[in-house]
Amino acid sequence: MQDLIVDLKERSYPIIIKKGLIDNINIEIKKIYKGKKIFILTDKNVGFHYGDKVKSCLSNSGYDVKLMALEPGEETKSFDTLPSIYNEFLDFKLTRSDLIITLGGGVIGDLGGFAASTFLRGVAFVQIPTSLLAQVDSSVGGKVAVDLERGKNLVGSFYHPKLVLIDSNVLYTLSDRFFLDGMAEVIKYGCIKDKEFFYFLKSLKSKKEVMNSIDKIIHRCCFIKKCVVQNDEKDTGERMLLNFGHTLGHAIETYYKFKKFSHGEAVGIGMYNITKLSEEKGFTEKGVADDIKEILIQYSLPYQVDIKDNSEILETIALDKKNIDDVLKVVLLKNMGEAFLENTNVEFFK
Ligand code: GLY
């Protein structure tokens, strides 16, 4: 699989997608890092499967390595977790010329990336995403953040890694639910930018068939994402297209206090329902919503919720950070693979 380069001038970096990468991580790290100390941040689940392997691979090739394994789950991505990480950095005498590796899903990537961006005003870091969601989305593009009690991702920055290493073999230890969670974001790329890719995903009949093409699938998603990020790094235009299904999805996640639906599941519901609305309003070609519904069913993802009174959902949408001066930018599809931004307001969802 050909390496991708996120081309951002002096902040450019490669994305390497290769099965078995995690077994010889030292080879790729050696190419970009000439220092001695490496701090690995992971969670206890990922650490259980891959922590020792990555740590000893790096130690055996001469690095001085420390590993910190946090509790798994979104609660860990809290602003309040940061001091414990900074303290570990200090105990390890980490300097600005050393390296941090984030080994995990979106929580570890976002949190570790944010810690890397702020400690000593910035330490270089490498992303090794281990969930499908992180491999196709959050590890690429430099968005790093932590949650506050009053909302997710409220404190963050744009801070790019030096390298993203993606080994799809690690997906075999991911639960089916979280594999499918990632598939919702994969489907999103087809919806917004690549009709052929969407119908290719629709042609796959089982998880086995998906896994047979998984590197190609991840590569396509990362290619689309890196092109979008290159055009709009700071998320003021085209990058917002990556939020297709997210406004409604986020409101549904919030309504259920992040307990009932995973992020991908909520995004799936959001993609179908916004497209249904937008078909009704004449923005989208007829039949696109049904295609989305069919693919969600095929991947065992939900496409609807049974909420009797949607006033709370509308209130959350009204508070969405994409709602500026009463103008809400929503991502709609003109046709499959052709997303655009529409300036509207909360009335759109009524
Ligand atoms: N996950 C959306 C973005 O990176 O912009």
TrEMBL record:
Transmembrane segments: none annotated. It is an enzyme of class 4 (lyase). Keywords: Amino-acid biosynthesis, Aromatic amino acid biosynthesis, Cobalt, Cytoplasm, Lyase, Metal-binding, NAD, Nucleotide-binding, Zinc. Its cofactor is Zn(2+); Co(2+); NAD(+). Pfam families: DHQ_synthase (PF01761), DHQS_C (PF24621). NAD(+) binds at G106, V107, I108, G109, D110, T130, S131, K143, K152. Gene3D superfamilies: 3.40.50.1970, Dehydroquinate synthase-like - alpha domain (1.20.1090.10). Residues 182-323 form the 3-dehydroquinate synthase C-terminal domain. Zn(2+) binds at E185, H246, H263. The keyword Secreted does not apply. Residues 69-179 form the 3-dehydroquinate synthase N-terminal domain. Its EC number is 4.2.3.4. GO terms for molecular function: 3-dehydroquinate synthase activity; metal ion binding; nucleotide binding. It catalyses: 7-phospho-2-dehydro-3-deoxy-D-arabino-heptonate = 3-dehydroquinate + phosphate. This is 3-dehydroquinate synthase. The lineage of its organism: Bacteria, Bacillati, Bacillota, Clostridia, Eubacteriales.
